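Predicting holo structure, (R)-mevalonate bound.
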Amino acid sequence: MRGVVVYSAPAKVYLSGEHAVVYNKRAVAVGIDLRTTVRLERSDNFHYQTNADTRYLEEAVNAFSSIKAVDGVEIKVESEIPVGAGLGSSAAVTVATLGALNEEFDANLSKEDIAKLAFEVERSIQGVASPTDTFVSTMGGCVLVPDLLRIQDTLDCAIVIGDTRTVGSTKKLVQAVKELRSSEPEVIDLIFDAIDRITAAVIEWLEAADYKRLGMLMNINHGLLDAIGVGSLELSALVDGARSHGAYGAKITGAGGGGCIVAICEAKKVAQVVEGIEEAGGKAIVADVSGDGLRKVVG
Ligand code: MEV
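Done. Tokens:
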């Protein structure tokens, strides 16, 4: 009897490329320091305690059981990540659960193995999914998808998230974009190509730490997400609130429809940007990049 094993994994935001990444275009995402913590111990049965969807826990245990037999576990989840807000809460819970199972059942999985397994779990539940959320949540830092490369550890500017407190269904939004693409393939593919070019430039300005240009690219990316129909009045209001209060740039993050925007700004402008988002009706969350992805929680 080894007692409780505790692991945590972070949320993420997209600097560019959501939706286009589903069609193999490039995207850059960043792990942020909102985390989900999973406490796991062996048990004679399966008990799951979470405020969110238990399917991710069940499916993570099922997928892991194909590697090592699991007779029974008790899993308790605590999370700082809003659910259904496009911040990758389901990936974080899946990754943290697999991390804890890996240790408790001595499976010797690498982080790459865990990221892959977590992606399979997400895909089996959501249908269509890119490996972005599960990879960032496992590795942390700034990552390039679909290459699955960690391109940078951190950003030298502030990140402010604006939560509309409305929920968007990733599955439905991905489906709606698919239908739009079937009806206007040439137009939508040009938009995806443009988003891919934005990501190429995002990589360049990230490396050069030119956050003004990075912000400008985020603004353009936001316009293109609006163009493919995943915006909302609430999301636009928060984007405008952040920009008019001094952000370098702001855009939808994640599937859209509801959920969150992400803004970047100078450290000295954080309070102003928070005010802009809250005046526009959102909940502001100031976040740091999480250089750590999946990690063991000790003590
Ligand atoms: C959802 O957070 C982002 C999408 O690109 C879907 C995905 O990448 O799985 C819309």
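The chain has two domains: 5-153, 158-287.
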